[in-house]
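Regression report. Comparing outputs from two consecutive submissions.

Submission 1:
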Amino acid sequence: MYQPRAGLCAGAGAAAAAGAGAGELLRPPRAAGTERRRTGRRLACLLAHERTAVAAARRIVDAFLAQADRADLTDSAELVVSELVTNAVVHGRPPVCLTLTWVETAAPRPSALHIDVEDHGSTPDTLGAVPPPDAEHGRGLVLVDAIADRWGVVGDPVTGSHVWAELT
């Protein structure tokens, strides 16, 4: 089971206080943000706690997938990231951290894209509940469930919630 790395996005509050403007992408120090691991590449980015962070997250995913020559995942990854970051911004508390990781999988695909969005809010009580037909909101995690190969939530009273999804 995937376990989020504690403290990967530590210092986000300090970065925000250091003067990041509206909608700017906040980047953690290189040592904490980008690293090589035995299971593949990882990229972590702190996002502004604003709705403009959703578009920034999509651009980050596009570049990450282009670098790995995995354009086949672009549409699905953009939708999943849009939903997860939107939920973190609307329902969570700052900071919001997007982490993209290539993880080893079994054949036929050698790796899966693991998307993790962390915020410091509480874990929602109604995960994946289908809203009434006339509701204007509430379908995001239903879409994530339909698109992702696997997804889930890890709640932590100290670091908040990590909502993750994997695409192959």
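Submission 2:
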Amino acid sequence: MRLHIYLILIFVLNTLLSSCSFFKDQDEFKPSAVPKIINQFVPKVIWKRSVGSGTGYFYTNLHPAYKNHMVFAADRYGIIKGFFLNTGKEKWQIDLKKDKKINSSTDTILLSGGIVADDKMIYIGSERGYLYALKESDGAVIWNSKTDGEVVSSPTLYKDSLLIHTSNGVLQSFNKNNGKLNWSVTIGVPVISIRGESSPIIYSDNIIFGDDQGNINKIAINAKDLTWIQNISEKHVNNAIDLLRDVDVTATILNNIIYSISYNGYLSAININNGNILWKQKISGIKNLIINKNLIYVVDKNDNILSLAINNGSIVWSQKSLLYRRLTSPIIYNHYLIVGDFQGYIHWLDINNGKLVAQQKLSKSGFTTEPIVADNKIIIQSRKGSLYAIMN
């Protein structure tokens, strides 16, 4: 039922977005041209490898993971690989679709959430509603478990548990060693929402997560009781798009303050103890934000990149040269802020002023999920499955 609603929503929004009567100027949301800059340095591609067929042009939250000098990556269709970080040499490969013990049909696996890794295993979820645990050393499947819905966000590790937030609004905890269900809490979803969910984050034995109704929730792990709920979305509705209030980002917590953002709403700072909003800024988005020292870095829903003061949300700088280029969430690497875009460019910004200092074209298929930092390298995966290791 949720899938049918989602498909109807896509049709409606596509119709609205293509209608001249809905928007005054069809070019208003046209992607900006690639800015012309003089590179202050030339980032180096250390190695490039292929990971199956990638994700195509479907929504995905698949991204690489790094642990114990190994990089792990997967494609949508069931191929998962382990690579040595320094050389890019492939250590192992597994195709879940061909494993008859876990896939007796001809259906594709549709991997979509993850990867996350601990010291011994990696974990990944699928749109089919399954969680998989594999050995880091050789990719052997340890267990697979059915979930209550699609796993379209990364699982969260907590002690001996693995937490997921499914697309139909269910929070579940599994034993990470054997895949057995510990508990399940239904949060619910609105009639329409954006594709994607927030990953839960653990802080002092509490679960913090966003939902599709514009809320930040705090649940005590031991009691599974809702401690408080705080809405950070815009409540005024002028058109159909205003109904999209999702909080799909993974919250960031620092000094007992939660920082999060909703699609139609606010970037907000929230007291973790009582849920009170300390300050809010009229910025909307669905990309994960990051904090470095006393600043917040965020990509808003129009792909404006901003830096804000952590104490009051005042804007320190903004970079508008990449509007509507469907940027990834940002990362920080060697004092630079880095994002990828839909045309396969990597953009490097000076973290102090937001100035573009370098860019490189890596992929024809583009990037949708954020890079990761692995030791002194950046790892990023393209839509077509190319995996890159980069240094500056």
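Expected: both submissions complete independently.
Actual: both completed, but the second showed a warning that disappeared on reload.
Relevant detail on submission 2: Residues 2-17 form the longest helix (16 residues).
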